[in-house]
Amino acid sequence: MNDLAPGPLSTSSWFTTWRFDAVGVVLALLLLVPYVWLLVEARHRGVRWPWWRILSYVVLGVGTLLYVTCGVVGVYRQTFMWMFAAQVGVIGTVTPVGLSVGDPLRLLAAARGTKDTIVHRALHSRFARMLTFPAVAFVLDLVGILAIFFTPYGEHAVRSSLIGTLLILQLLIVGMLYVLPTLGDDLLPEWATPPIRTFLAFIDGVADAVPGILVMTANSFLLPNFPGFSAAADVLRGGLSHYMDQKYAGGVLIAVAESIGVPMIAAVFIEWMRTDAEEARATDAELDKAEAARNAVTSRTDVSDAAEQTATDQPWWLSDPRLADRFGKRDD
Question: What is the pTM of this model?
């Protein structure tokens, strides 16, 4: 499929250029509708979901997906290589972070009242744990991005609707395989403590720049049959050379990766603080429970000692049942 942009790119195009993209709209609905339903169910159970998580899921997650498929990026992805790179970078990095910060797994548990759901069981299976293991997910992410620009995969994805759809699904799923466990609380091994996750987020931010650097410094055309490099697209490109277009594509990959790196580290750090606060509250509750148990035992002991002391303070003849009646009456 060769569907170039309707006209040259302008400043207003960033806000006014839109077209319906079935893949983007369907994916957005598949992501948004279940999340809204879980919000309603959680609300019925008395759970108020944080507004910033909802905002992240809807705007940074679903919103960016719609923008790069139906907005100006989706419209010009076949005209400019750097627009195609922007779509790849956003769907593979920004959208997964937005969705993961929305914490759909914890919301699912809150809505259902349990973590024993089919989704949780699937994510805790051996195969899922292998895919979400940091090293495996990292390699899948890095190799997938490199394959787009250093093999014919990228060209076919731009020209074919079917392969383009597979590319979007690949970017979204692989991105979630790395980001969701990093921001979650029980999808990684026990050794992946919050400090380790913060380090993993930092490493991911640094490594995500590698494909951009390689694309920017390449000396040959990586996608020679890119639709925007045809003569028919020259009038739309505003004089931008193919070589500089490729340079810009690498720069866009770097910019997108680094722009989301700091927010992701911040999100992991916030999750770290939340986990510490929950552990502190649990520890305080256990200490309070133990203190209450000690106080109860002490109270019973004091009562018993007082009773024994009262009995001991009585005269010896009153303590003897055989003499108590006789001397008790005499005392009266």
Answer: 0.78
